[in-house]
Amino acid sequence: MKILLLNPNTTASMTQAIAAAARAVAAPGTEVRATQPSFGPVSIESHYDEAFAAAGVAEQVRLAAEDPPDATVIACFGDPGLDAAREVLDGPVLGIAEAAFHVASMLATGFSVVTTMTRTCVMAERLVQRYGFERSCRGIHGTDIPVLALEQAGEPMLRQIEEAARTALARDGSGAIVLGCAGMAPLCATLSDRLGVPVVDGVAAAVKLAEALVGLGLRTSRRGDYAQPLAKPFTGWAQGLAWEATRAAGGR
Ligand code: 5HY
């Protein structure tokens, strides 16, 4: 099966690091193709960044519709553009935050999220509410480590994240940790060994859930709000990304 791994920021080295984490857990026969938008923020750490990241996701799934993947993973903890992507692509589309919440809630009655910038915690809180995990998500904690600094994560930064996780487990009374950034994927195994509790990386969780959904022959519903976009002209720089009537007619 073919998984499209979509990093919504525009840092190619981060896209490759996320792709390596995805390929490390992918089953034999699963091909992971990694991509990122042609425009937008080098990292997503604010509402403004996220607005462009969502448009970047829309751009990439619109292009992917020409040769659709079996499933798609949106590899940013804000799950930007998730609903739009589900309207466009037939195969399952998974956001790493939603995937991680589902997995963590099956491993512990309560989990805590450890993320990057404290200012993005409210964005994770809104996802917890949106996805209905208020009862199992016991806390969201920022480390104020910039997203792109994670690429150079050495022992001091690893220890900083480990300490934030220990504090979260103790303060929240939770039994599992969710890593709140795709850039933390490479740190998951080490943190899990050190903390002795389940540490969930959304990239890996989303890849395995994508394989499971495709394996079950399940695809996004076309009934209701996830029906394909209505065909209409777009103007300006997005003109070429419009959803044409031909595609709408050909859709399920
Ligand atoms: C991410 N930003 O996973 C989010 C993390 C965050 O560029 N990739 C980003 O802080 O929300």
UniProtKB/TrEMBL annotation:
Gene3D superfamilies: 3.40.50.12500. Belongs to the HyuE racemase family. This is Aspartate/glutamate racemase family protein. It comes from Ramlibacter pallidus.
